[in-house]
């Protein structure tokens, strides 16, 4: 965090909201960003944890990702609302929140979140909340939209009270977010975009190798169609029983940059294998992103580059993940584990997650996740990120394969933050258990992908009336119940997010099933 206004590079003093003008991506901008981040580290220990400290958080929930792939996700503009969980920061009485979105958020949804605040009235919180919008639903990242609107940036600046420490909270950090930070004169709690490549698929494999973790057999730094064909052929040569391989774009997300290649019908004669793969690839490749042709996928892959790995099969296979955080003080924390639910035709699309991960292996993957986090810390990484694994049960033990690092917030970030805000508890890596402030265990099931065509046309007000009438809510006394998100996607797309919190996994599923039953009975 740093004081509102722009940080002076020469003497470390704040200037009076004077915006530096420098070319995006220039060495000057990069240097100014590093100075902002350095100041953030100096203030972090004193300001960030203080419940009564005067601070402001500017939330930019921009999915600054490949827009062509992102467009394949229905209602993607409303995914910005997943970070509304950070409105719970208003439970701290001197904290101000500035929340910026592409399109306005219905006041009914804001009231719903403020009603969940523990120990603070909605009125008090509302006085410290500034909601701003670009009024722009075009398929462009929110951060780019903000940068095109100087008056909006000025409104962000003026929403930060004089003398308050402030920082940006972003979904992910790219050069666009760096430019915005420099223009606003406040740091980001997130990874320097110059280090973002450590979260791509190829560099993830490099980190895993450095950490001594098992990975699927495969190849990184695959660049061209010929490289893909060579990698697929070599995998099959090494393992003649291999049934499938997966191709992943370096910067794909939620499985949308993946494609599956089946080896069914492959010749046993290795001298014919490469030509067979070349001929078969255009028709046999199963692309996860809906509506993307082979030629489109090929062009996007050659732009992003990526990896080719064996597709691991097994009768008992799970997809756990570990969420970590590196603070500006260099502290490494394992903050949660999840068992992810994957679906879609190829089983590659993130649908939801159970928290915490199975007690059979949550501690093991936590240890592996910490090892990766320590390696990333040495490379200068900051903020929240996750590590995805594939876990197989082999007789009486579990074998873990590290898959990828995501240097950003993700689908497991907002449900865990909401649980923490609502119960004031924490996850213990040693036991693999989350306990509330009064020592009670809690777990949850969360999804961003509850979908039914019957939900189309339901407005936010309709949803909340249904929820209230059927007692679908979070009970602060019991610290159990359901919390809705992605509410704005409901009417147009018939899509909704749920966070179901309970004492046991069975209880969370019961809450989920009852909620779905009520909604489906409409």
What is shown here, in short?
The protein is α+β, with helices and mostly antiparallel strands and 522 residues long. The chain is 33% helix and 25% strand.
Q: Please give the number of β-strands.
A: 22
Indicate the CATH architecture of the largest domain.
2-Layer Sandwich
Helix content: 25-40%
Measured distance between first and last alpha carbons: 47 Å
Average the pLDDT over all residues and give the rounded result: 92
Number of domains: 3
Q: By CATH's scheme, which homologous superfamily of the largest domain applies?
A: ATP-grasp fold, B domain
Overview of this structure, please?
- The chain is α+β, with helices and mostly antiparallel strands.
- It has three domains: 188 residues, no CATH class; 94 residues, no CATH class; 204 residues, 2-Layer Sandwich (D-amino Acid Aminotransferase, Chain A, domain 1).
- 33% of the residues lie in helices and 25% in strands.
- It contains 16 helices and 22 strands.
- Strands 11, 12, 13, 14, 15, 16, 19, 20, 21 and 22 form a ten-stranded antiparallel beta sheet that branches.
- Helix 1 crosses helix 7 and helix 9 crosses helix 10.
- The chain is globular.
- The chain starts with a strand and ends with a helix.
- The relative contact order is 0.11.
Task: Compile the SSE list and pairings.
Layout: E1 2-3, H1 27-47, E2 55-60, H2 67-70, E3 95-101, H3 107-115, H4 122-126, E4 129-133, H5 142-147, H6 150-158, E5 165-170, H7 175-184, H8 201-210, E6 218-222, H9 225-238, E7 244-249, E8 258-262, H10 270-284, E9 286-287, H11 294-304, E10 306-310, E11 317-318, E12 320-326, E13 332-343, E14 349-355, H12 362-378, E15 383-394, E16 397-406, H13 413-423, E17 426-428, E18 433-435, E19 443-451, H14 460-469, E20 474-475, E21 480-485, H15 489-493, E22 495-502, H16 505-520
Parallel strand pairs: 2-3, 2-5, 3-4
Antiparallel strand pairs: 1-5, 6-10, 7-8, 7-10, 8-9, 11-15, 12-13, 12-15, 13-14, 14-19, 15-16, 17-18, 19-22, 20-21, 21-22
Helix pairs in contact: 1-7, 9-10
């Amino acid at each position: 965090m740093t004081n509102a206004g722009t940080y002076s590079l020469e003497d470390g003093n704040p200037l009076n909201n004077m915006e530096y003008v420098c070319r995006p991506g220039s060495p000057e901008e990069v240097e100014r960003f590093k100075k902002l981040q350095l100041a953030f580290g100096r203030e972090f220990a004193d300001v960030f944890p203080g419940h009564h400290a005067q601070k402001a958080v500017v939330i930019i929930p921009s999915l600054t990702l490949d827009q062509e792939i992102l467009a394949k996700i229905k209602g993607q503009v409303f995914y910005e609302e997943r970070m509304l969980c950070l409105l719970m920061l208003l439970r701290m009485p001197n904290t101000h929140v500035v929340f910026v979105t592409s399109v306005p958020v219905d006041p009914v949804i804001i009231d719903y979140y403020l009603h969940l605040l523990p120990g603070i009235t909605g009125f008090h919180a509302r006085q410290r909340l500034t909601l701003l919008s670009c009024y722009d639903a075009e398929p462009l990242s929110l951060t780019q939209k903000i940068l095109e609107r100087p008056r909006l940036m000025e409104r962000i600046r003026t929403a930060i009270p004089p003398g308050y420490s402030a920082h940006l909270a972003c979904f992910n950090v790219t050069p666009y977010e760096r430019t915005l930070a420099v223009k606003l004169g406040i740091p980001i709690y997130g990874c320097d975009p110059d280090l973002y490549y450590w979260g791509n698929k190829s560099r993830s494999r490099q980190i895993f190798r450095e950490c001594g973790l098992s990975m699927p057999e495969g190849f990184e730094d695959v660049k061209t169609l010929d490289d893909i064909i060579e990698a697929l052929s070599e995998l099959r040569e090494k393992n003649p029983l291999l049934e499938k391989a997966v191709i992943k774009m370096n910067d794909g997300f939620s499985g949308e940059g993946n494609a599956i290649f089946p080896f069914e019908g492959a010749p046993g004669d290795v001298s014919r294998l490469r030509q067979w793969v070349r001929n078969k690839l255009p028709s046999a490749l199963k692309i996860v992103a809906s509506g993307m042709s082979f030629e489109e996928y090929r062009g996007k892959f050659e732009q992003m580059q990526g990896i080719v790995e064996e597709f691991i099969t097994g009768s008992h296979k799970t997809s756990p993940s570990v969420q970590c955080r590196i603070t500006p003080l260099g502290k490494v924390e394992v903050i949660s584990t999840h068992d992810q639910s994957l679906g879609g035709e190829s089983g590659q699309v993130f649908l939801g997650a159970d928290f915490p991960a199975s007690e059979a292996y949550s501690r093991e993957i936590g240890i592996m996740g910490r090892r990766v986090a320590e390696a990333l810390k040495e490379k200068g990484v900051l903020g929240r990120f996750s590590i995805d694994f594939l876990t197989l049960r082999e007789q009486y033990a579990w074998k873990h394969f590290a898959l990828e690092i995501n240097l950003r917030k993700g689908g497991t970030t907002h449900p865990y933050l909401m649980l923490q805000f609502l119960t004031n508890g924490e996850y213990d890596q040693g036991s693999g258990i989350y306990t509330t402030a009064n020592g009670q265990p809690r777990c949850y099931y969360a999804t961003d992908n509850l979908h039914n065509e019957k939900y189309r046309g339901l407005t936010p007000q309709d949803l909340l009336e249904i929820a209230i009438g059927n007692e679908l809510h979070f009970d602060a006394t019991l610290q159990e119940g359901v919390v809705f998100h992605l509410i704005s996607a409901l009417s147009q797309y018939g899509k909704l997010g749920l966070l179901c919190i309970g004492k046991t996994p069975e209880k969370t599923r019961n809450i989920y099933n009852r909620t779905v039953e009520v909604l489906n009975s409409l």
